[in-house]
Design a protein that fits this description.
A hairpin with a 2-residue loop joins strand 20 and strand 21 (about 355-360). With about 475 residues, the chain is of the alpha+beta class. The two termini are about 50 Å apart. Strands 1-2-3-16-15-5 form a 6-stranded antiparallel barrel. Strands 8-17-14-10-12 form a 5-stranded mixed β-sheet, with no helix packed on it. It has a 4-stranded antiparallel β-sheet with strand order 7-9-13-11, with no helix packed on it. It has 7 helices and 25 strands. The chain is elongated and about 75 Å long. It has helices at about 5-20, 20-30, 120-130, 140-145, 150-165, 175-190, 450-480, and strands spanning about 45-65, 70-85, 90-95, 100, 105-110, 170-175, 200-205, 205-210, 215-220, 225-230, 240, 250, 255-260, 270-280, 285-290, 295-300, 305-315, 320-330, 335-340, 345-350, 355-360, 365-370, 375-380, 385-395, 415.
Length: about 475
């Protein structure tokens, strides 16, 4: 996070932990990251919450770890995700060695903003999704591949095994003999397919100008027949969405360009354009966590889902008139920030301890380096109440090989309950693979090795707290 806590606060927190070990241990157990907000810098599309591994079967993993070949079994298959505004998704994992965190919020992104950005086999993964389960039913898959005796579970596991070969370079083979045949078929026939478009986007996500002008253009991108456009309530009277001729519009198709019309004499301010569509999210779209580290997913199936995108508009009669867009740049390992000033005066803002000045009529591109899996949250401000907050996690790489499950200090399930899920107790960091607990079809495609550490810290704090109470009682007794 781009934030600094004062030393005094840290000392007070440390003192509180020592005096009350039991309370501190409970706080560690239930504390979790704040929910990430959808920001104007995002490209739009579906936002969903990760559920459990619903359809799965056993997959044998063979991997060289520390110069030794290790063999073990995992469950692989289809995850369920719930779309924020209505709808459901099915996804496969494309980040084998990272734990999947149930209850985490995910965002639809392009391949360039995920671990697929430098994967030459990404197009082959999409071919597998198009030609296997669940996009192709089990009966149709048997007829197409001449592999008989498949079930939904074996087909899902076989498909996941084939995807892992391309996403993580993992030697993954279904335990079921018929599943093995399906995996072989998919790998032998996979071809490169072009990356799918976003379900919905507005580009750019921020525009600026002067009152009396049409601000834009803003290009609409969608796989739906059309998207509904509106100005978010709270904007000044008269501000609306129009086409290039100034005609008010409420609907737009893929490729249409729209503008924000600001009547002359409107007081300096900002407005937000919202696009919404009901559509099926395209196969192969990547989904990344925006609430801490969790497995990157790839879409395998979608119901009709409600997707959204937003863009902001700022205007003023004179002075600086800023606009800002932010996007992950996995190739450079950070964020690409495009800051522009449509006004006639300089605009200066601070970002991560550095001051930047954008002259009137100027546009600057700023790259903010981030470490892999680093969470970020920052706010850029400007005149007339301009304020944009951007939040997320840089997740651009698949995790490297690590200890096999039996050698890790934890046997936590890979679909770890998040702190927002009822009945859960912790917010641990996902790590290497692990076994399933709790029965059913929970995933085994990654787990956390932080749970025992947190438990140890909690226990230590309890002991320290108890010791403090004992010491104070002895002191009181001595005084009497």
């Amino acid at each position: 996070m781009f934030s600094v806590r004062g030393r005094g606060t840290s000392r007070r927190l440390a003192a509180a932990a020592l005096v009350s070990g039991l309370v501190a241990a409970g706080a560690i157990g239930i504390a979790g990251p704040a929910a990430a907000e959808e920001s104007p810098g995002d490209n739009g599309g579906a936002t969903a919450t990760l559920g459990q591994l619903k359809i799965s079967d056993k997959v044998k993993i063979t991997e060289k770890i520390n110069d030794k070949v290790e063999v073990w079994e995992e469950r692989g298959g289809l995850f369920e995700m719930k779309v924020e505004n209505g709808g459901s998704l099915q996804t496969y994992c494309i980040d084998f060695r990272t734990g999947a965190r149930e209850g985490k919020k995910y965002k639809e992104v392009g391949w360039d903003q995920s671990s697929l950005h430098n994967n030459a086999d990404a197009g082959k993964i999409l071919w597998i999704l198009e030609n296997s389960y669940p996009n192709v039913s089990v009966d149709a898959l048997e007829a197409k591949t001449h592999v008989e005796g498949l079930t939904e579970k074996t087909a899902a596991a076989a498909t996941q095994a084939a995807i892992w070969r391309y996403s993580d370079k993992v030697d993954a083979t279904p335990v079921d003999p018929q599943g093995q045949k399906l995996t072989s078929y998919l790998l032998e026939n996979a071809k490169t397919v072009e990356e799918p478009k976003a379900s919905l986007s507005l580009s750019p996500s921020s525009v600026a100008g002067k009152s009396g002008e049409r601000l834009g253009p803003i290009k609409v991108g969608t796989n739906a027949a059309e998207a509904t456009l509106s100005i978010v309530p709270g904007a000044p009277a008269g501000v609306g969405v129009v086409d290039k001729d100034g005609k008010a519009v409420t609907k737009a198709k893929d490729g249409d360009e729209v503008f924000v019309d600001v009547p002359k004499g409107t007081a300096d301010g900002t407005a937000e354009v919202k696009a919404e569509a009901a559509t099926k999210v395209p196969l192969g779209r990547a989904f990344v966590s925006v609430q801490g580290k969790s497995q990157t997913m790839i879409l395998a199936g979608s119901s009709d889902s409600t997707v959204t995108a937003k863009a902001t508009a700022a205007w003023a009669k004179k002075g600086a008139v800023p606009a800002v867009t932010v996007a992950k740049d996995c190739a450079k390992g950070g964020l690409e920030i495009v800051a522009s000033n449509a006004g006639d005066e300089d605009w200066t803002f601070d970002l991560k301890g550095t001051s930047y000045t954008i002259a009137g009529g100027e546009t600057k591109t700023i790259t903010v380096p981030l470490a892999e899996d680093e969470a970020y949250k920052f706010t850029i401000t400007g005149p007339n109440g301009f304020e944009e907050t951007f939040e997320g996690v840089l997740d651009c790489k698949t995790a490297p090989p690590g200890p096999k499950p039996s050698e890790t200090p934890s046997t936590s399930p890979s679909v770890e309950p998040s702190p927002t899920t009822p009945g859960t107790t912790g917010d641990t960091t996902a790590g290497t693979t692990g076994s399933t607990t709790g029965g059913g079809d929970l995933a085994e495609t990654g787990s956390s090795n932080a749970t025992p550490m947190i438990a140890g810290i909690a226990a230590a704090l309890v002991v320290v707290g108890g010791g403090a109470v004992f010491f104070l009682r002895k002191k009181k007794a001595a005084g009497q």
